[in-house]
Amino acid sequence: MFPVVHALKATPGIETRVCVTAQHRGLLDQVLALAGIVPDIDLDIMQPGQTLDRLTARLIVALGEAFDADRPDRVLVHGDTLTAMVASIAAYYRKIPVGHVEAGLRSGDIHHPWPEEVNRRMIACIADLNFAPTAAAADALRAEGRAKAGIHVTGNTVIDALLATRERVRKTPSLSAAVAPLVARFAGKRIVAVTSHRRENFGDGMANIAGAIRDIAARPDLAIVFPVHPNPNVRMVMDAALAGLPNVALIEPLDYPSFVALLDACAIVL
To answer: Is 229 a catalytic residue?
Structure first.
């Protein structure tokens, strides 16, 4: 979303205020710092072990109070998080129009991804402006009966953010320092970056993914770099299947610029 925030702030006649819920505090703060964005409202909503029910309840109250205080002319939400869905509902309750960035993505299965597939469908019921990343996403919105005049194919701001960050990483060696030793270690090999943490893959799904990575690692021309999510449902499975393989590096999660540096060094991303 930060490319949109910067563009709005640079547009005369628009007062832009940034509200964050900190649903993912650690991920949020590093990106805000990288983008040079200071939130106007930080609800700091996350608590350890918080269920989706409790998170939803806390979000609807906190976002509603924020909207009551600011009375925005429009609310923009991004993606398919619980925050985006609840913000759309809170805005709807106050008859504030909603714009949805990254609209129209559909898997066709309400359980994959879960709960994001339902979140984004609910947002589409409310938003009058839908900014679709692709023509296919726009087609999905039209097929659902969304107003054609409110559907705009804009490209994906996540890709905009990625490309902007890649340019900074290439110009600032310190931003890629965390992955430079790995790139050097696997010099001469094609690097495969792997990431997997979806909760719907826990159990057999994660074991199957680990087995597939092990099969890929049998190729001596490839090296696999896998920032492993700390959730035991991921870490224990990957450690058991992949630890000790000479061309597999199981590493701690990376901050955003470091991960972009890894992507920039890769031949394949899984």
So the answer is: yes
